[in-house]
Amino acid sequence: MDDLYDPDPLAQTTLRPRRGRGAPTNPVGRFESMDLEIEQTDDDLPVQETELFRDSTRSIIAWNDSPDLNFDASVNPYRGCEHGCAYCYARPTHEYLGLSAGLDFESKLFVKENAPELLEKTFSSRSWKPQDVMMSGVTDCYQPIERHLKLTRRCLEVFAEFRNPVGIVTKNELVTRDIDILQTMSSPDVAAVHMSVTSLDPALANKLEPRASSPRRRIKAIEALSRAGVRTGVVIGPVIPGLNDHEISDILQASADAGARSAGYITLRLPHGVKELFADWLEAHYPNRKDRVLNRVRDTRDGELYDGKYGLRMRGAGEYADQIERMFEIRKRKAELTQKLPPLSTGHFRVPRKQLSLF
User: Fold this and answer.
1) Phi then psi for 228, rounded to 5 degrees?
2) How many CB atoms lie within 10 A of CB 292?
3) Which of 172, 164, 209, 177 is CA-nearest to residue 194?
4) Cβ-contact 175, 230 below 8 angstroms
5) Which of 91, 153, 213, 315 registers the highest number of CB atoms within 10 A of its CB?
6) From residue 23, how far is each of 211, 227, 270, 327 by CA, in Å?
């Protein structure tokens, strides 16, 4: 695996990073006909402020039938994500709103204010079948705005009241704020938290995921959750060939030492316009490594930057993808993260009496 080293990361680049943002550009959405983005010089790049919009959705459960996923239902209290991860596969979802997958995705955020009430109504319905529900399918439910809005916390209170199993994937230490709720869900085994750690290098993480928690704080969060008795795992999401794949061993060991009980990974996915956005990010931050990284990505996708076929999109295919998988499995065994955990329990589900009287 290649070590990350770029002695002059801004040499020969025409793109400049935006402070506090992941995407250096805001390209037109694939459903729009005109690109009105104004070119700016390096001296007049403004700080991109975060704007919030109300999302008056009428349903809160998003369903999928993907054979690549181990859940069918997910809850996303927000649309868009302020973490600004340059590689995020969910960026194209903003294009359905007439917005850009670039800066718009991380700065124009939609808030589902009625998410907890909708979730309560769903669980109270006679048609609901208790099952695992994932929080953070196409957003991070603990992104910075959650600190004040507390929609995720209120949704967790609903999960706890009904004892419906919930899995959480996040890159933010803010999840530790809700340990009090997660602890109450631990004894019936209806909650699990998976911390996504892509690098232990704070400089790389700050460029790659500018508003997510630092690597040190994410490892500390694993430790706090584990100490509290919450089922906790780590996900290297994503493994980026030629950029962070050399860190697999260190991430797994640090997570295991902190108390993680399971581990997984996802290979970089670049659907639709995320290909160009990630290439722009490399141009802005690591121009001397851009071609090498993209070629490594192609080595895991049969010569392409993305392959959306089921069974391949999460892990890739080819010799380099196989090499990543072998390394991950070897290092996982060394870190003693091979324990196979039982599924979360659906047997404790209940509808509180106050809800039975309403329906």
Assistant:
1) -80, -5
2) 15
3) 172
4) no
5) 91
6) 12, 36, 14, 30
pLDDT, position 43: 46
| pLDDT tens digits, one per residue of 156-188 | 999 999 999 999 999 999 999 999 999 999 988
H or E element at residue 247: none
Question: Helix 290-299 to helix 319-334 angle, to the nearest 10 degrees?
Answer: 90
Identify which of 254, 240, 168 has the alpha carbon closest to the alpha carbon of residue 205. Answer: 240
Structure tokens at 47: 């700080």
Confidence (pLDDT) at 66: 86
Burial 124-142 (b: 16+ CB within 10 A, else e): beeebebebbbbbbbbbbb
For 115, other C-beta atoms within 10 Å of its C-beta total 23
Q: Which residues contact 330 (CB under 8 A, 6 or more apart)?
A: none
Amino acid at the residue 175: V
The pTM (predicted TM-score) of the whole model is 0.88
What is the per-residue pLDDT across 36-45, written as a single tens digit (0 to 9) for each? Answer: 443 444 444 4
- In 3D space, the residue among 102, 107, 82 whose CA is nearest the CA of residue 92 turns out to be 102
> What is the rounded distance in angstroms from the CA atom of residue 38 to the CA atom of residue 19?
18
Picking from 289, 316, 285, the residue whose alpha carbon sits closest to that of residue 209 is 285
Which stretches does DSSP call E strand in 127-281? Answer: 133-135, 166-170, 191-196, 231-239, 262-267
Give the CA count within 13 Å in the CB-facing half-sphere of 222.
28
Domains plus CATH for the chain? 46-338+348-356 (3.80.30.30)
Residue-wise pLDDT tens digits, 237-272: 999 999 999 999 999 999 999 999 999 999 999 999
Q: What is the DSSP letter of 80?
A: S
Q: What pLDDT score does 1 carry?
A: 42
